[in-house]
Write a structure and sequence with these properties.
Order of helices and strands: EHEHEHEHEHEHHEHEHHEHHE
Largest sheet: 6 strands, mixed
Bound molecules: pyridoxal-5'-phosphate
Distance between the termini: 47 Å
Strand content: 5-15%
Strand order of the largest sheet: 1-2-10-7-8-9
Structural class: alpha/beta
Oligomer: single chain
Number of strands: 10
Shape: globular
Length: 324
């Protein structure tokens, strides 16, 4: 796959997504012994997650082609983004979600006027049900996991980060299910290098939960098979069979990154530390990136003086806020 093949779609359906701020994470940096740790607050996008970048591009393309009905499968955030941008474009959306999806994400999707179909079983069962529905009903499967337009939309993350950070980040860590932000960032930096707007590609790392680590296992040369259902606090990255797994591996290897898996306890600990020590309310899936950072600092992959960037991908109100 050549990362530097941009798709040109005029952004006709937009809500001012992107242009999210980059702020320092000084307390977390002190804990980890890092001098330059920053976060890009992706949860400040219109529906509360980075998925708006991709949804704006994908729905603009669908509108341009006169599509009036779409279906999508999602753990919640992409569904909310697709529901919102579809509403804005006058497109009827049906969103397939895991029955276990957080209540706030479901309410958000429904409030945009989308139809919700809850599916029992793991994330793959949700995708299968959506694909079956689309085939039977002749509805466009507007899958954020498969569409190149969605990835094209997430590239803006890289353009902004490069413009916002001086020095540019040496490492960027993403919570990864299917890798839409990881791959988009890689393509974005590749575009900039081709046009001379960036000198080098940061090392792009993927973080997964130990409860669902298909990419981290493949990176280590193993194969992970789900045994029964996946239970995790990080529902956004609980993708058992990511269709873009090979492409994620390519991004990681090409950029000199790594894929790691982290414990559920560590994810919740970092979610709490972000709130208590930085005042930042992120959903657990997003906090996984900090757990991954801790692991990569410990193993010596990330050095004290290197600039690190972590996107906080989803807003805390969308998911469980632990009590006690
Ligand atoms: C908050 C959050 N972060 C990260 C991800 C992972 O995105 P991807 O599956 O494209 O890697 C998701 C996906 O739903 C998410 O909701």
């Amino acid at each position: 796959v050549d990362p530097a093949t941009p798709i040109d779609v005029p952004l006709s359906v937009t809500m001012g997504e992107g242009q999210t701020p980059v702020v320092r994470l000084d307390a977390a940096g002190r804990r980890l012994g890092l001098r330059s740790l920053r976060t890009k607050l992706e949860y400040r996008n219109p529906t509360g997650s980075f998925k708006d970048r991709g949804a704006a591009m994908l729905v603009s393309m669908l509108k341009e082609h006169g599509v009036t009905r779409v279906a999508e499968d999602s753990s919640g955030n992409a569904g909310a983004a697709m529901a919102a941008y579809s509403a804005r474009a006058g497109i009827r959306a049906t969103i397939f979600v895991p029955a276990s999806a957080p209540a706030m994400k479901l309410s958000q999707i429904a409030f945009y006027g989308a139809e919700i179909v809850k599916v029992d079983g793991g994330r793959q069962a949700v995708t299968d049900a959506c694909q079956k529905y689309c085939n039977e009903q002749g509805v466009v499967h507007a899958s954020h996991n498969l569409s190149p337009y969605f990835i094209e939309g997430t590239k803006s993350f890289a353009r902004e980060a490069a413009a916002q950070m001086d020095p540019p980040p040496r490492h960027v860590l993403f919570p990864v299910g299917n890798g839409s932000l990881l791959i988009g960032a890689w393509k974005g930096w590749a575009d900039m290098m081709k046009s001379g707007n960036a000198k080098s590609m940061p090392r792009l790392h993927a973080v997964q939960t130990e409860a669902c680590p298909p990419l981290a296992s493949a990176y280590r040369g193993g194969a992970w098979q789900p045994t029964g259902g996946v239970t995790t606090v990080a529902g956004g990255i609980a993708v058992e069979r990511p269709p873009r797994l090979q492409q994620c591996l390519q991004v990681i290897n090409d950029s000199g990154g790594q894929a790691v898996s982290v414990s559920e306890e560590s994810i919740l600990r970092w979610q709490s530390l972000l709130a208590r020590e930085e005042g930042l309310l992120a959903e657990p899936t997003s906090a996984a990136a900090l757990s991954g950072l801790e692991a990569l600092v410990r193993s010596g992959v990330i050095g004290r003086d290197e600039a690190v960037l972590i996107p906080l991908t989803g807003f805390g109100f969308k998911d469980r806020i632990p009590t006690g």
